[in-house]
Write a structure and sequence with these properties.
By secondary structure, the protein is α/β, with parallel strands linked by helices. The protein folds into 3 domains: 22-91; 163-270 and 280-323, Heat Shock Protein 90 (2-Layer Sandwich); 340-465, Rossmann fold (3-Layer(aba) Sandwich), CATH 3.40.50.2300. It has helices at 5-11, 22-121, 128-159, 171-188, 208-224, 283-293, 348-360, 371-380, 397-407, 424-433, 445-465, and strands at 167-170, 192-196, 203-206, 231-239, 242-249, 297-301, 309-316, 340-344, 364-368, 385-389, 414-419, 437-440. It has a 5-stranded mixed β-sheet with strand order 2-4-5-7-6. The chain is elongated. It starts with a helix and ends in a 13-residue tail after the last helix.
Length: 478
């Protein structure tokens, strides 16, 4: 920075010409330079601070943008997840509805087939061929019924509507029922079945029918996947407060890659082209679901293909076995007395065969094939029994029976519903409409005869309790 020489001389002592000494001038220059450096340093610091602030602002702005982008992605992902969940739920609902409808549609042709089998049974002794055909027919119908029941149970499990009739039951009774169901198939394949249960009775709090279904499914499955002359074992042992029941075989085994999914719905292993094993891949899924509903667990063991398999069911034990209630001995039902029956069924084959069966039992049958004609017949005639299908053209069974109930005077006939639907809601609606009984197709003649016989017995008892008063003729009545 330039300096005023006159001022410098005035301030500087010594020297005749007033010129400052070099040392003093050097000091002043250094002070000035130091001051400038300080100013420059402050400016640089300020510039750095502004630059850092700008960087922070830009970084903050970038972070905000990233957060906004992430939030948008999260919202989109959430919406996608909801869409996927809704799609999965809709697909599951369609599957449940399909299984239920398929089971219903399969029950309709099963009804005349089962009735025809019952009718054929009465003539099986006429010729050996008839007996053989009847046996084949009966076995295949029973197999179809089990498949349909599995479809219905699968839909109930998927929708959470499966229910249990819980009571104290003995493990021996459960296994006996399961063996009785599976034994015909095992014997046809000439397989050896060994049952090894502890001598000490073991009590389980559960549904006898459902638990028997668990072990019959395992036994049937073992038989299907075991060669002829193979071996099948069912045994049990107590483990603490639980019982472990196993079903093992020396059959085809289960490949390692399939084992984690063996209890999943519709899971099946490799099949040959002839599909000799049959089935729908539902049985093991039901085994696990029913077992879990009883507070138990289902596991399996297999060393691989060709080395057999073992399924283990663990169930909690209940109170001491002494409290178990054995079922009463079955009572042989006598044929019901002859009565007048109105049959309303739109399936021609089912109507014809049912009519022949009922007439064979000695009943008088009036057949109708739709709702309006059935209602007219019911109002015009006097019947002891009205056997009415739910799904009818013109008027459904609910409408027919409701109208009959409203129009007929006491004593009214016994109203029996027949339907391919076994849902609880359908049964409740039938009861509310006026049906006295509800039979799921294919309805057995044994069940139907039991209902007819009970109704006739009640009617006779009512007449004995309240006999018709005698008619007294008075003089003015001649």
């Amino acid at each position: 920075m330039p300096t005023d020489d006159h001022a410098l001389r005035a301030k500087t002592p010594g020297g005749h010409d007033g010129t400052a000494a070099p040392a003093v001038r050097q000091a002043l220059y250094e002070d000035e330079i130091a001051s400038l450096r300080g100013t420059i340093s402050e400016l640089l610091s300020t510039i750095d601070a502004h630059a850092q602030e700008k960087d922070r602002s830009e970084a903050f702005a970038l972070l905000v943008q990233q957060l906004q982008d992430a939030n948008e992605h999260l919202v989109l992902a959430t919406l996608d997840a909801r869409d996927l969940q809704a799609t999965a739920e809709a697909a599951n609902l369609r599957q449940i509805e399909f299984l239920s409808m398929l089971a219903h549609e399969l029950r309709n042709p099963l009804q005349p087939m089962a009735m025809a089998s019952d009718l054929l049974a009465g003539h099986a002794g006429l010729h050996p061929t008839i007996a053989k055909v009847h046996n084949v027919y009966s076995r295949q119908i029973a197999h179809m019924e089990r498949l349909v029941d599995d479809l219905l149970d699968a839909s109930r499990v998927s929708s959470g509507k499966i229910t249990l009739q819980v009571a104290p039951v003995l493990l021996h009774d459960i296994v006996d029922d399961a063996v009785e169901t599976a034994l015909p198939g095992i014997e046809r394949r000439h397989q050896l079945l060994q049952v090894r249960l502890p001598a000490t009775p073991m009590l389980i709090q559960g549904d006898l029918i459902r638990l028997a279904q668990v072990f019959s499914n395992l036994l049937i499955n073992a038989s299907k996947f075991t060669q002829k002359l193979g071996h099948i074992d069912i045994g049990a042992e107590r483990v603490g407060d639980s019982v472990q029941v196993w079903v093992s075989d020396d059959g085809v085994g289960i490949p390692a890659e399939l084992q984690p999914f063996v209890f999943d719905l519709f899971t099946q292993g490799h099949r040959s082209l002839e599909r000799a094993q049959g089935g729908l891949g539902i049985g093991l899924s039901l085994v696990r679901s029913i077992t879990q509903l009883h507070g138990g667990s289902a596991t399996m063991e297999s060393e691989g293909a060709g080395k057999g398999s073992k399924f283990i069911i663990t169930l909690p034990l209940s109170a001491p076995a002494e409290t178990a209630q054995h079922g009463s001995a079955p009572v042989l039902a006598l044929p019901p007395p002859a009565c007048k029956i109105l049959l309303i069924e739109d399936n021609i084959d089912a109507n014809d065969v049912m009519t022949m069966l009922l007439q064979h039992e000695g009943h008088t049958v009036t057949s109708c094939f739709d709702g309006p004609s059935g209602l007219r017949a019911g109002l015009d005639g006097s019947f002891d029994i009205v056997l009415c299908d739910i799904g009818l053209p013109g008027m459904d069974g609910f409408q027919v029976v409701s109208a009959m109930r409203a129009a007929l005077e006491a004593p009214q006939p016994c109203f029996i519903a027949t339907s391919g639907y076994s849902a609880t809601g359908q049964m409740n609606r039938a009861s509310e409409t006026g049906f006295d009984h509800y039979l799921v197709k294919p309805a057995s003649m044994e069940s139907l005869n039991g209902i007819i016989g009970k109704h006739i017995a009640q009617m006779r008892a009512a007449v004995n309790r309240h006999p018709e008063p005698a008619t007294v003729l008075r003089p003015n009545q001649y």
